[in-house]
Structures are given as C-alpha cells and as structure tokens.
Amino acid sequence: MRRGASRTVVILVSLVVGILIGASLGYMLAPKPQPAPATPTTELDKLKAENEQLKAKIEELKKKLEATGEKEITLKIWTIGPDPPSEYRLKNFEIAASMLNKWLAALGSKVRVKVEGEFFVRPVEWGEYKNKFYLAYKAGKAPDIYLTGHEDVGFLAANGYIIPLDDYIKEYWDEVYYDVIPTLWEAVKYQGKIWGIPQDTEARPMYFRKDVLRALGWTEEQINELPEKVRRGEFTLDDLLELAKEAKDKGLVERGILHRVKEGYDYFQFYLAYGGRLWDAKQGKMVFTKSAWKKTLEWFYKAVWEYKVISPTQFSGDWDKDFHEPFTKGKALFLSGGTWHKGEWISKGLLTEESFNENVGYMLHPAGEPGKKPVTLSHPLIYTITKQAQERGVADVAFVLITMVTDPHLNSLHAIKSSHLAILYSEISDSRYTKDPFLADVAYMLDYTTFIPNHPKWGDYSRIVFNILRGVESGDLKPDQAFNELLRQIQGLGSDAVIIED
Amino acid sequence: MKHKYLLFFLAPSFLLILVFFLIPVVITLLISLTDMDYSFQWNWVGLKNYEEMLRDPIAYKVFQNTLLYVFTTLSLFNVGLALVISLITVHIPERVGSGFRALWLLPRITPSTVYALLWLWAARQDESALFNWILGFFGFEPVNWIHRHPWLIVILVNGFVGTSFGMIIFTAALKSIPSDYLRAARVDGANTFQVIRYVELPLIKWPLMFVTAYQTLSLLTSYEYILLVTNGGPGYYTTEVWALYSYHLAFAQYGGIVKFGYGAALATVLVVLGLIMSVIYWRVFRLKEMMLEPKIEV
Description:
The complex is a heterodimer. Chain A folds into 2 domains: about 50-200 and about 380-450, Periplasmic binding protein-like II (D-Maltodextrin-Binding Protein, domain 2), CATH 3.40.190; about 205-380 and about 455-500, D-Maltodextrin-Binding Protein, domain 2 (3-Layer(aba) Sandwich). Helix content of chain A is about 50%, strand content about 15%. Chain A has helices spanning about 1-30, 45-70, 90-105, 125-140, 155-160, 165-170, 185, 210-215, 220-230, 235-250, 270-275, 290-305, 320-330, 340-350, 355-360, 385-390, 395-405, 410-420, 425-430, 430-435, 435-440, 460-475, 480-490, and strands spanning about 70-80, 110-120, 145-150, 190, 195, 195-200, 205-210, 255-260, 280, 285-290, 330-335, 360-365, 375-380, 380-385, 450, 500. In chain A, strands 2-1-3-14-6 form a 5-stranded mixed β-sheet. The longest helix of chain A has 28 residues, at about 1-30. Chain A is elongated. Chain B has a single domain, classed as MetI-like (MetI-like fold, Orthogonal Bundle). Chain B contains 15 helices and no strands. Classes of the chains: A alpha/beta, B mainly alpha. The interface of A and B includes residues 151, 152, 458 and 467 of A.
C-alpha cells in the first residue's frame, strides 16, 4: 500500500514538473507578439492619438492649476496687426481658452482660464508696440504671451525678457510641433535654443494690374506668363521700370510703381535682387554687399528721377491715398507689397475676390539684372512667453494655449482672413486654407525667400537704409552721395555687427 | 519767523521744479553717460555719446535746421506777427479787434493732431486740397506743398500756433499804456506810426524781450508739429530739428530698437543750450531790471 502510494506521488510530481518545464519552454520558444505600431495608420488614428495625448496633458495641467488654489487663472496676451484683418492672432486665444475651459469642466475641475488680450492696429505701428512692451516689462506689467517679429528673439532672449521653450516643445512635440514647417524653427533660434513658436509667415509679392497690361496690348497668355518669366530671371528690375514707364507715358496709369509709405523691411528686397546678402549665419553677423547697395540706390534714383515711375513724395505719403487706393483703383501698375495686403483690400472693400482674380496678378520681386535671382522677404511672427509669466507661475498654461492655437484649423482662420501663409504642413491641406487659391499660388515664393537678420543691431541697419532711401527719392541725395553716406553709417555699427563685402 | 513763512509758500513750487525739472535733468545727464537701450542696462561709457555726436554729420545738419527753424519762426511769427496783430487790433474798434484776436487763438486751442491733420489736408497735392484749390483759380498747377516747400509749411504750422502767445502778452501790454501818453502824443501832432514807433514800442520793451527769450527756449525744445506734419522729412533729415532727432533716436524707431544713451546726450545738449541762452538773454536784455521793484511809486 505504501509502495503503491509513493509511486502515485512520484508520477504526480513528475507530471507537475513536466508541465512546468513544458510551459516554461513553450513560453520561451513561442513567438512574441509584435508591439503596437508607433505611427498611427490613418488620419483618424492620428487625430485620436493627438487628442489622447493632449487630454493627458490637460489632466496634468488641471492638477497643477488646482494646486495653486486659484479659481481663475488670467493670462495677459499682447498681439498686433497692425493690419486689422490679422485679428485672429488674438481671437484664436479666446477660442482656445474656451475649449480649454470646456475640457477642464469635463474633467471635473473648477479652475478656469481667462484671456485678457490686446490686439493693436494702425495707427499703432510696430515701433510703438514694442516700446510699450519694454516699458510695461520694466514696470512689472508685461503680458504673459507676447507676439513679436522673429528678429527680436536675440535681443529679448539676451536680456532675459523671454524664456526658452525647448523643454515644452519636446513635451508637446507629438501634439502639433512635429508638423511645423522646419525652416520656421530656424527663425526662432538664438544661441542653440528655441525662444518662440511661429505664428505665421508671409511672402512679399510684386503685385501688378492685369487690366493695365491688357490695355497695353498684352494677351492673356503673356500676362499669365509674366510671373514665370520673373521666376526664371528673364524679367528684371530694369524691365519693370520700362514697363511702368510705358504704361505711364501712354496715360494708362498715374503712377508706375508703388511701395510702402513708411519705414519697413520691404526695400531690402531690391538689394537682395541685386545679389546682396543680409546675413552671414557662420559668423552671426549682418552683411553689407557694396555692389548690391550701389545698384539698389541707382535703381531707386532712376525710378524716381529718370523714369519718373515712383513718386518723389511716396515716402511722405498716406497708406490709403498713396498706396492702397491708387493700386486697387487701377491707377498704378505695380505695387511692392505683402500677401497680407490682399486680405486688407478684400476686408476694406477696395476689391472683391472676383475683381482681385480678374485684374490683379502677383509675382516675385524681379532679379536686379540677368543672371541674378528673383526674391521675396519673409518676416515670421512668433509667440513668446515672458519671464514675468514664469514668475507668476502661468508659463505652463500659456504654453498649453499657444499649443492649442498652433492648430491647423485655428491657424487657417487667421491665414485666410489676413492672407498670411501656413506654418504647419497639415494646414496646407486644411479645407479652409485650400479654398483660397491665392495662398496656394504664392506658396512657391517661400523657395525664394530670405528672413531678416536676427541681430540686435538690425533695427539700426534698417533705419539707416530707410533714411538714405528717403533722401534719394526726395532728390536730396544723388546715388553716389547716398552710397558713401550709407557705407559710412553702416561702418559706424561696428565690424562685430556687420561684414562689409564687395 | 518771516523766513519760515517764505519757505512754506515756496515749497510747492520748489517741489515742482525739483520733480519735473531738476531730477529729470540729472537722470537725462546720467543716461547720456551710458549706452542704454531697451535692455535698460546702465553700462557707463563716459563721454562716448558726446564724442559720437561730434563725429555725427547728421547732428550738424540737424543743428543747422534747428537754427533756421528757431530764428525764422521766432522773428516772423512768434514775435513779428504777434506784434503786428496786437498793434493793428488795438488801433481798430475794440469789438472787431477782439474778434480778430480770437480767430488767432484757434490754432492754439485746436488739439495738435487735429491741427496737423488740417494742414496735411490743406497742403496735399490734390487739386481739391485747400491751397491748390485757391491757387487753381489763378491758373497754378497743383503742388505737393509739403514735399516742394517743407520748411515753409513747418514754419507756418508752428508760427500760427506760436503767434497767439505773443499776441496776448503784447495786447495786454499795449492796453495797459496810460491813454494820457497817447493823447499827449496826438496833441503834439504824432501820426499813428509815430505813436507806435516813439510811444508804444518803447513802453512794451519788457514784454517784447520776455516773449523773445521765452519763445526761443520754447521753440528750441518743440518738435510735435514737425513730427506730425513731416516727421523730419520729406527728404534726408530735411526738417529734422534737434529735439525731434533726440526723440526719434530715443523712442521712435520702426524696429523698436532704440538708443536712450545717445538720445539723452542730444537732450542734454538742448538743456545746456537753453541755460546758455537764458543767461545771455538775462544779461543782454537786462531782465533783472524788469524784476526789480520800481524805484519810484507811480
């Protein structure tokens, strides 16, 4: 009996051990299940994944906000047009805050985010807006989010006005920032760190009146071919003068070429068209190309005093009477403007979409001479977070809001209304964005664009050029005189700021 | 005890001068010794800004502009026209004279931006703009006045505002001349011009000198109408005056990058120039005598 019982025990133990060994071997040898694919397969999956990630972030944010013990977090945001149609630079934050508050409510939080924003328009210009910011900052009343031009990054960062955003961007990369058009990141970098989030960008086309060209005897085919000729470098700045003169001489227009009536950066396009360089990335310095400046000043002098196609009073003019109206009424052939001007004309009622498409064409700024390239200039605007926002403990919320407005749908609201260009790849295919053929048509211009230098002395460079050009157009300075004066003043900025090359 | 009362009554005005003049002057002087920009850093650079000013050809041009502006506006309008209007309006019936003077106060009481806009509209190139519309009747071609004759417009704009101050002072002074003097002159056979030349002008010597001194200093530091009408243009610093140059550098650049240090150095020069001019006027015009108590009781 005992022997029979012990045999049974041995058999049972052997069986259990056998099962265990078999199971272990089976587990080790069995093929492992594949991990879930890292990249979502469909657009819907992608959207779902982004939403889930954002939801998780909002939950984290909710905990942080509740920890502060406050019921309402107010964020102060400053933005500027100065063109009125760019109002979504602020409005999008109001939309985003209302979305954020709905999410917070859905998550059971009682904390709410309130946006206290300013959107400045003309007569407030950029200089005044920036001055206001610096003085407000000094008084301890700076906004938490500050919209500015990318060229200010160096100055703002070096002087501790704004905080670096690299860690935030890393954290929220998969939500939206992977989608930002990469060249725009270059515009917001300073000393290896990222200090702002791109808000928009633009191209600066040379607009032309198709109806005037028709009256000059051009066929539709010739008119439609003009932008392409410019792109190929077959139509130069001198051709522009000739054509403008012809239209003026024949009494078809009162003015040949219009340019902005106040200081700005547009004039540098003519210098770039003559092969001038603005920025040396290796040395981190601005550049003054002598030959290009010489030709640029000669061109402006010729345009005003020989061809008489630019008015000598253009610089003392009025935005409406000397810029928008003569062109939209067909009294000028060319206008050196920006993509946003199309938005301005439509929203001001100066043109309709139909009359714009029928009578207005757009091309790059032509090359200065054969062999040179046509150009445009971009000036991306950026959202920054101030150090005072960090000190107030609202930098996290500020960044969540910036992330929410950096959204293809919200950003296209701005792009469409103000005729600015997309900052995200997915925005280009957004249903709103694609409805405006103009934005798609000018997209190629970004291949020919230059950003203005991100250097603390850029404002000085720009001011000197503006005053000299004003002197040339008014007839106070002859091209040679103007060049010598320009060179002398630029040299005064110091060799640590500007490289002077032949 | 008497001094205690004096101190009490002088304290408010002394405080005002201290807060609104002396302290700003000292701060401006200190900033002018730095290269301060919008980083608000007090980087001391000694007299570098002043050396830069001496090498700055624009500063020379601006200085010449300032002399032209101050001298012309002062002589033609702030003193010249003010005196003419006062003399004419006290020699015509009172009601008409008062009405005419009231008209000349309009530029002064109109808000400066509105006043400047009116000039901009009046001087535009359009045929319908006021100046061209009037000249059109005489067959003249329309002209962009601000571009073609910027100094004429700048001087007129400032002169029309500046005239009212002298006009009020001179009129008050002329009216305070005892009528016995004027009657006596008439009895002696003097005509109107002789009354003005030999009786009235000598008797309003002090107000004339005071207005000249005061308006020189006022014009030296004024720039707002030039800013609004030409903004220093239309050409290469065509109508940029010293105070406007300082303002442009310190506050008003398109890119928002500014030079507080250099701007403050320019402003300091203006303060020093003002002080020198005050001393010169004090001495040359013997303004001290004007402040003295009369030697005889009248």
